[in-house]
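Internal tracking record. Fields below are filled automatically when a chain is submitted to the structure queue. Please do not edit lines marked as system-generated. If the sequence contains nonstandard residues, flag them in the REMARKS field before resubmitting.
Queue: standard
Priority: normal
Entity type: single polypeptide chain
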Amino acid sequence: MDPLGDELARELARFGPQGRIGEIVAAWAAAVGPEIARNAWPARFMRDGTLVVHARDSIWAFELTQRAEEIAKRLSVEGARFVPGPVPEGVEEATPATATAVASPTEEQRRKAEEWARRIEGENLRKVVRKAAELSLARAASDRPF
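SYSTEM-GENERATED OUTPUT FOLLOWS
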């Protein structure tokens, strides 16, 4: 199976800064540490490229605003803005072992992904969606937590 990362990144680049949100979420815990990752989470990008981060409460938002420049630099984003908002529960720091372990799709999952992607006209996008669907189906069927 071919790696999906380069093709997906190319397609997401069409959406401007918002297309990088997956990359930022993946790097978040390693960039800010487990304590901040449990209390703040990337939410979206503003049009100017500023990352909006939800903080557990206004106290966390205020404290992290003091470190916004440092955090933005670590994530290679234009800036960071911290606001109170929903933060996922049970966020754990990704380790290299868990970050690279990927379940392999079964033939049935490959057929289902092909069926979903079949209606997409653009060949490159169709391939990317098919690969993403295969991996998503395989991961959902595995016993690994999300």
